[in-house]
Amino acid sequence: MNEIIKWIFIIFAAFLLIVMFQVIGLGLVILFLIIYLIYRLNKKDVINTNKNTILPEPIHNEPVLTQTTPAHKQSESNPVSPANSNNNIITFHTLGENISLFGYTIVDPLIYTSKNTSNDSSYPFVIYLTSKPDFSGNDSYELGYWPRFSRLTNLQKGMYIKWLVNGKKDPIDIGYVFIYYYGLEHRAFVEQKDQKVILFELIRLYNIYSENFSFSNYSGNFISYLILKIDNFTPDETDFLIQFITTLPRDYRNIPISDLLYKLTKGTYMLSQSVLPSILEKLFDSDYQLNLGKRQRELFTYYVEKEIEVLNLPELYTETDTSFTYNHASPYSFIVRPVQYKSLTPVSEIKATYQSCKGKWKRGFQNITIRKIDSSNDALTDVEKCAYLSSNLRFNGINPNKEFFDAKIQNNSVMEIRALQEFFAFPENEKLTLRQSEFLVDCCESLGYKIEPSAYLVKRAYKSTDKVILFTSTHKDNLKNNNFIIPSLWFDLGYKVALEDDFLEDGEVKLIQKTLKTNFKLSLMEKERLEKRGELYSITKQVNISGFADIIKSAEPESINLISTYLISVAAIDNTITIEEQKLLEKVFKQLSLPSEYLTKCLNELQQDRDVVTIQLGSGKPKLGSIIPRPIEESYQPKEFKIDPAKLAFVLGDTAKVQMSLNEIFAEESSGFVVIETEELEETVIGVIETQEAEIPAIFFSQLIQKDTWSSEELKNIFKPYHLMLNNAVEMVNEWTDNTYGEYLLEEECGIFRINKDFAEQLVELGVES
To answer: What contacts 24+ positions apart, CB below 8 Å, involve 396-402?
Structure first.
């Protein structure tokens, strides 16, 4: 305190005391006390002014990691002090110098020190030389938020000093790293010096400690700010920064990766490598309604990228002026001015494609689990991505493996499942699971090939030795349409009997085709599938009917009798059943677990009329002592005989009954199978198909827009008169609106179907309702 001011204050105080107090003695005592107090304060200031700080001599030097960046001179600064601090001179020790602290040598320190005594308003990052760190052990206590060096215990201060000495790279509580980090912030933002040195030091720290969310978030944004701020990078530094940026994880960090690359490369960086994904990341980060898990985000990003690639846009982005703001981590306040830079903004076509893909994604991937076929945590392959997208969305992307696959099956469309497992890198199992089998179908579909028999349609897992046929088709397909299961079973049973002698007659094929045509209304795609399956069977001479036995065994006796008659009709193509054909039928019946009495009964019923012999029992009584003969057991002995065509046609005329019976069995096995309720099957199915192609979607639309939400039961009642199951009808409506107007009408969420209100209102305005 200035001496003149002190004595003026003393004289003024004495005058007031004399005037205010009548008793002079009391005034003099008080005056004496005031003078003595000021005297003691003045003495303390003099002691502090003359006090010298003596640093301890170095004990030893330890080798540390030395950086190769050119050295800078030590600098002293009088920075903007923290609040309530009157005197806080600090010294920064920069790259290239060695300093000794408490007997240890620190190389390339990038730290602040001070000779003053710390207090509550001290900088959190400054190492005070009056401290007494303890190097005798470790303190496992976590520092918590906003740590300060001045508040550390002596043992914790010793740990921090040793961490600095060892190159700032050892595992340690993240609070110690943040104390060091606060100093880097102060140097770069408050003093605005050594920004490039600090940038590369931050990258080094990020590579070591980025597993901590808080540190990775702050440091990632600090790095971004400095890259956008600094303009004088060398070519080597630029290459290093590009490599670092492109390896950053794209998840929770709001790092403008595309803008950083654009700034570093002056816009010459290859768009296909990073700019498109980065632009999409900007859309993701600003879309708070899109909440995707890791696998879903991985697949969705790929989906949008491929949809954009198809557009073949001349430009992906426009250049706009924007700013980047950094929120500092330090517990004391200072101002960081935003940095201005050129930003990449997606063109309108990309934004529109993103929104369209998001809508289709929500509908196509409702409650679908995405995982690798081998259940590992590795990234999805292009094959897996394309398979998921092709099976759930109308995907326009080009599969990068298509050219290789085309060459593989160019001259051989019939393949073993084992070959497909190898190509698609499936697990080398002798038997696949049903999920793996269906995913194998999706993989083939993603390459433009249909597979027959399809695991989706036959509901049966593949074995590695199974053979399938691959083909291309222009007809629309629905792999989840279970109406195909019954005719498919009928087809396989017929071919199984026809091929038991390893020879396929034209008459047998025509009979199977006629039976299917008469009793089932098949789409063009379903007809093509059965045609290709027939080609496969004629080549391999093998028909897999595993699983059929359990289904048929559960049918009603009348249906089993009809199935038996159908099998006999295929064998009796020339209206004659030979002994050899009867033996083949016995073999098939055994494989299907059909009782042998059904074969005997059906053969007897279908024979042409035979002479009837009536046997009358005798009325005489047996004589005493006579041996009572055993009853004669009736046995069926194979022999060649003729089939009555009229009887055969009559029995086969009830095929609709067996179809209904089998439908009921399938419905019990899986609630997804379709149950067709009909009295005259052919008439009903034909009516449904014709209405599907013409009027049903529009009729449904006028009913559906009457409410915003529908339950599953309500929709089933709407679709029931048209003999359509819920899933098939919903898909039909959405496909119609998407093909015609480019959007889906119905969206399902937990069993509740919601109407796309905005889209419905647009259609009403267009007069679609009428």
So the answer is: 396/306, 396/307, 396/310, 397/303, 397/306, 397/307, 397/309, 397/310, 398/306, 398/309, 398/310, 399/446, 399/447, 399/448, 401/447, 402/447, 402/448
Tell me the DSSP string of 10-64. HHHHHHHHHHH-S-HHHHHHHHHHHHHHHHHHHHHHHHHHH----PPPP------
| Residue 682 tokens, joined | 């052919």
668-709: pLDDT as tens digits:
444 443 333 333 333 333 333 334 444 556 667 777 878 888
Band of pLDDT at residue 754, cut at 50, 70 and 90 = confident
pLDDT: is 616 or 485 the higher one? Answer: 485
Q: Are 641 and 579 in contact (CB under 8 A)?
A: no
Q: Which residues pair with 345 in a beta bridge?
A: 318
Q: What sign results for the dihedral spanned by CA atoms 533, 536, 541, 545?
A: negative
β-bridge mates for residue 468, sequence order:
415
Residue-wise pLDDT tens digits, 318-334: 888 889 999 888 888 88
Half-sphere exposure of 587 (CA within 13 A, CB side): 13
**Tokens representing residue 448 in the block:** 């433009």
For 316-364, give the secondary structure using H, E and C.
Answer: CEEEEEEEECCCCCCCCCCCCCCEEEEEEEECHHHHHHHHHHHHHHHHH
Taking 80 as the threshold, does the pLDDT of residue 648 lie above it?
Answer: no
pLDDT confidence tier of residue 62, bands split at 50, 70 and 90: very low
| DSSP structure string for 203-232 | HHHHHHHTTSHHHHHHHHHHHHHHHHH---
H-run or E-run covering 682: helix 681-694
pLDDT at 70 over 60: no
Number of H helices, E strands in the chain: 30, 16
pLDDT for position 655: 52
pLDDT per residue as tens digits for the range 366-400: 667 788 877 788 888 888 888 888 777 767 667 77
Average pLDDT over all residues of the chain: 74
Q: Are 333 and 85 in contact (CB under 8 A)?
A: no
What is the token pair recorded at 752?
């509740």
Structure tokens at 234: 């060398």
How far apart, in whole angstroms, are the C-alpha atoms of residue 258 and residue 345? 10
This model's pTM is above 0.85: no
Q: Which residues pair with 342 in a beta bridge?
A: 321
Q: What is the pLDDT of residue 155?
A: 92
Check if the beta carbon of residue 77 is closer than 8 Å to that of residue 122. Answer: no
Residue 261 CB-half CA count within 13 A: 24
CA 22 to chain centre: 90
